[in-house]
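Sorry to interrupt, but I need a hand with the structure work. Go ahead and set the record down below:
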Amino acid sequence: MQGTEHWTKKGDVKLFLWRKAAQATGTPRGTILFIHGSSMASQPTFDLSVPGRPDSSVMEWFAARGFDTWCLDNEGYGRSDKTRPINFDIANGADDIAAAVQFIGKEVLLYGISSGALKAALFAQRHPQRVARLALDAFVWTGEGSPTLAERRKKLPEFRARNRRPIDRAFVRSIFARDHPGTADEATVEAFADAILALDDSVPTGTYVDMCSKLPLVDPAKLPMPTLILRGQYDGIAGVDDLIEFFKRLPNPDKQFAVMAGISHASFQQKNYLTVYHLLHAFFTQPQTVYRG
């Protein structure tokens, strides 16, 4: 399936977007914008190709079912500009989403993973009228109960001292080893690492600083749209009790909380990735509520 590259600007900053348009005939199902996490750009996460692993590209899977699919390289990542002397934090990432949604020109079905979920939620809080449905995967609210963040805080002075941190193949492999080894197959991990490192050998520190020292960044009471919380069974970022407290405060009764069995972090690269597709597809195609009482 062919994709097309697009460019927009946030002030003087050039932002890269990648699109795979709807393939199915009939009624369009909506426009999905995917937002990546802290340590990789968008195409490795959402349009990965792995030989022998069908439907590794979530963008292609949804495009084949009638969705117009987009992803965005946040400033500081991938093919977007990286030149400003800042650490590209979560608020800056939410600004990127605003520029992308304006470029797309439609209300979006918004998905974010890890720090991308924080960026997506912050954008949705600022611009609720521009988000039809919101899906937050590997989200973290206050950080309570997160062993990954507890370990990461030990390096907070290092992250605060520089705007970028190096990444390499060992680092990418560690994403899949830290919570519960075995949830992803080796071929997928290596293909993911190849795709990430082809675009970046370092990534911004801003999201790490925010997640280690500035949470909470989002007020659930200010998210009026239907919302889905996705939590991998073994994910060390997303503490269950923290997420449940966030979920309880979401004002729209059209909300769902799903625990994904056998999944840790980086859900689209897990062995059980089709579970994630199923949950997202069901949420994004849910019929409109007829009776509200």
User: Anything to note?
Assistant: The beta strands are 4-10, 13-20, 30-35, 67-73, 108-113, 131-137, 164-166, 202-204, 227-232, 255-260. The two ends are 44 Å apart (CA to CA). The domain at 4-284 is CATH 3.40.50.1820 (Rossmann fold).
